[in-house]
Amino acid sequence: MNGKIIGIVIVVSSLIAGAALYYLQIYGFYQEVDAPAEGIELMALSSGEGEVIPLEGFRAIDAESSPIRYRACFTTPYSLALLTETFQMVEGVEPRNAPGWFDCFDAAAIADELKAGTALTFLSEKNVHYGVDRIVAITDDGRGYVWHELNDCGEKAYDGTVVGEECPALPTAPAPTE
Known about the structure:
Strand content: 25-35%
Number of domains: 1
Structural class: alpha+beta
Number of helices: 4
Order of helices and strands: HEEEEEHHEEEH
């Protein structure tokens, strides 16, 4: 009888821990965020500075637990032709998955549009967090998607490789106060 009780306790504990882990990964750390006051910026080809593009219907989520959990959706009246002539494009990036409940951001569908050429990716901001760039994908019908992507410095920093001189200095943790 003692073995059954211990077995039941282990199974119930495992189920509770699994449910808690699932909840925390899918719902717990995410929070909806407001549209940036300055709007979504794309890096201009001419100046290398961010320029705000018009947008509507902005929705976004973020989590403080990771710099790459940011996802956003919006629409813009700008055409792909105008965007490609004006802003810096980014090649070889694919969207990261978003939680299923954030239904406007479907990474698989966005990736399919990128492969088909009906969507293009642009650089929004370099080093929004250390080693993380903000990427914007816009489709030919004006739907826009935003996510964060590790850049070369971020990949090196997070995998333990020597960062090198071409990367900005790593941020330091603040000293503990007494």
